[in-house]
């Protein structure tokens, strides 16, 4: 067979995206995806390395050179099937994985130029598959054993996907009215359209996964009841880390202060940006978002799209330490978000009615590295200043909700509420497994999906041993 053509360009094939000025006022997806020609051209940059270093950077072991080779051969459907062997969420991961610190970081093409655009290619094949094929059930044979999954975020979905493939009858219990977890209520439409997530969930449903929404485990039903009364032989807890952390500064209970979680849920899940829905949200003019992660970037960019004139990111360290994906910081800058780095809020200012009117900040400088390895921010004496505002969004982190722990006998958690597991996702309570943000605290989509897969294998082994 003829060898595929090589493209030795040091740069990735650019992906078209909406103009920053236009997109800053709409919720349509920012990046528009590769065409077939672009995908073929980018795929030709892959050297098909024998030792597959890129795969070492992927938490779910996607067969990267193999799927890229199938793109080279023009068989995009087979390329998608190749990814699906290890990753049930390719259209999602192709969009939101921090590829720059995972698969693409290990790509040899990155040594003398830009790495192969693995994420963009993954997105291309998943989108191609969705647009050119009818979803149909895989017809997995059932083995007669029942497993419950709590939470329908990436951890729960990937655990459910693998268990279904192995023949288990899986029911996912989800407290919200829609499945998808943070993929739907956290990450905004302009980065990850909800329809993409729905499509990936629909495939699971076609394969027999039962999704029970509006069911809060710990309130509607407990883990003990699921096991004792409903015949589930094992449980996977993928309940995420949805409990917001606050700053603990004066004025934080003023009207107009939101947790990022609440702000984004109102916008994404309850469609506050859409005039046809009457979800209450402040249509603010001047907004400050506190934090420097993906959640902060999403909140700031959402505020712009809801109609704010000025949006600030207030972050106590510098760009270098910012945990958000570089691409997201870049996009936020292009859209006009104003970055106030090395700045720490010390008080939220309110008027006599208790409404936010501003924020008092202090300038910071970086000292010696702290336990996280990042340089510790230290306040500069006498550097206080105020910014006039009408809304503050706090995006400084989240912890797991204590509900599951408090209603489950014998489930050990850390002092901040993370469920304690071994590497396979086994908890202190027999038959109960856990993974994703509920275990690690806020992390990434693909690490949660990876944990779901690992736990699915452990659940399979547990049930087989129990019934041996
Ligand atoms: P979640 O996605 O949080 O899902 C948990 C689900 O469990 C939720 O649907 C919740 O409603 C449900 N649940 C909770 N308690 C119960 C209960 N008692 N009963 C029933 N259901 C329950 N990661 C990236 O890799 N790239 C990004 O660009 C990125 N951007 C992000 C942007 C935002 C705004 C946020 C908030 C996070 C972002 N992340 C990103 C992080 C990533 O989304 C999470 O790490 C990931 O979703 C965790 O998956 P999970 O399945 O563990 O939990
Ligand atoms: Fe890269 Fe994420 Fe795809 Fe793995 S799942 S290959 S880390 S984009
Ligand atoms: Fe292709 Fe890069 Fe992986 Fe080599 S390291 S196989 S060039 S994607």
Explained architecture:
This protein has helices at residues 20-23, 36-43, 53-56, 64-72, 76-84, 90-96, 103-106, 118-132, 154-165, 182-185, 194-206, 223-228, 260-268, 294-306, 326-335, 403-406, 437-440, 445-466, and strands at residues 146-150, 169-173, 210-212, 234-237, 243-244, 257-259, 286-290, 310-314, 338-340, 343-350, 356-369, 375-379, 385-388, 391-394, 398-399, 432-434. The chain is of the alpha/beta class and 468 residues long. The chain folds into three domains: 20-132, Fumarate Reductase Iron-sulfur Protein, Chain B, domain 2 (Orthogonal Bundle); 146-242 and 399-466, FAD/NAD(P)-binding domain (3-Layer(bba) Sandwich), CATH 3.50.50.60; 246-396, FAD/NAD(P)-binding domain (3-Layer(bba) Sandwich), CATH 3.50.50. The strands form four sheets. The chain has a five-stranded parallel beta sheet with strand order 3-2-1-4-16. A five-stranded parallel beta sheet has the order 6-14-7-8-9. Strands 10, 11, 12 and 13 form a four-stranded antiparallel beta sheet that branches. Helix 6 runs antiparallel to helix 8. It is globular, with a radius of gyration of 23 Å. The mean pLDDT is 94. The protein binds flavin-adenine dinucleotide (FAD) and iron/sulfur cluster (2 copies). Residues 58, 60, 62, 64, 87, 93-94, 97, 99, 102-103, 118-119, 122, 446 line the site of one iron/sulfur cluster. Residues 46-49, 52-54, 64-65, 107-109, 116, 118 line the site of one iron/sulfur cluster.
């Amino acid at each position: 067979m003829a060898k595929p053509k090589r493209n030795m360009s040091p740069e990735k094939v650019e992906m078209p995206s909406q103009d920053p000025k236009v997109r800053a006022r709409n919720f349509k997806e920012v990046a528009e995806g590769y065409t077939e020609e672009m995908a073929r051209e980018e795929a030709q940059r892959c050297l098909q390395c024998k030792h597959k270093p890129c795969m070492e950077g992927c938490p779910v072991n996607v067969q990267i050179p193999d799927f890229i080779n199938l793109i080279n051969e023009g068989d995009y459907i087979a390329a998608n099937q190749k990814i699906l062997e290890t990753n049930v969420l390719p259209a999602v991961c192709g969009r939101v994985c921090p590829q720059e610190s995972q698969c693409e970081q290990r790509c040899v093409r990155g040594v003398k130029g830009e790495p192969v655009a693995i994420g963009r290619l993954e997105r291309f094949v998943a989108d191609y598959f969705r647009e050119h094929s009818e979803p149909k059930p895989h017809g997995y044979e059932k083995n007669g054993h029942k497993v419950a999954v709590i939470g329908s975020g990436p951890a729960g979905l990937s655990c459910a996907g693998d268990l279904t493939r192995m023949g288990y009858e899986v029911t996912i219990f989800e407290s919200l009215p829609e499945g998808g977890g943070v993929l739907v209520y956290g990450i905004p439409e302009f980065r990850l359209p909800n329809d993409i997530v729905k499509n990936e969930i629909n495939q699971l449903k076609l394969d027999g996964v039962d999704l029970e929404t509006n069911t809060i485990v710990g309130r509607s039903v407990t883990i003990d009841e699921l096991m004792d009364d409903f015949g589930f032989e094992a449980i996977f807890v993928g309940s995420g880390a949805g409990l917001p952390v606050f700053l603990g500064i004066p004025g934080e209970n003023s009207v107009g202060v939101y947790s990022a979680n609440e702000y984004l849920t109102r916008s994404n899940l309850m469609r506050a940006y859409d005039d046809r829905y009457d979800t209450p949200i402040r249509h603010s003019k001047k907004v400050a978002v506190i934090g420097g992660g993906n959640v902060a970037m999403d909140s700031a960019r959402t505020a712009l799209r809801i109609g704010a004139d000025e949006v600030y990111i207030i972050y106590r360290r510098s760009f270098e330490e910012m945990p958000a994906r570089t691409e997201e910081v870049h996009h936020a800058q292009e859209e006009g978000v104003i970055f106030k780095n090395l700045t720490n809020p010390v008080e939220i200012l309110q008027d006599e009615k208790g409404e936010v009117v501003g924020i008092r900040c202090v300038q910071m400088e970086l000292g010696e590295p702290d336990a996280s390895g990042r340089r510790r921010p230290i306040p500069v004496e006498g550097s206080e200043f105020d910014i006039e505002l009408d809304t503050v969004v706090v995006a400084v982190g989240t912890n797991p909700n204590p509900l599951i722990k408090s209603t489950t006998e014998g489930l050990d958690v850390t002092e901040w509420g993370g469920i304690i597991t071994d590497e396979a996702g086994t908890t202190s309570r027999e038959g109960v497994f856990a993974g994703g943000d509920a275990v690690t605290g806020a992390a990434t989509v693909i690490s949660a999906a990876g944990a779901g897969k690992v736990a699915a294998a452990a659940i399979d082994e547990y049930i087989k041993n129990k019934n041996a």
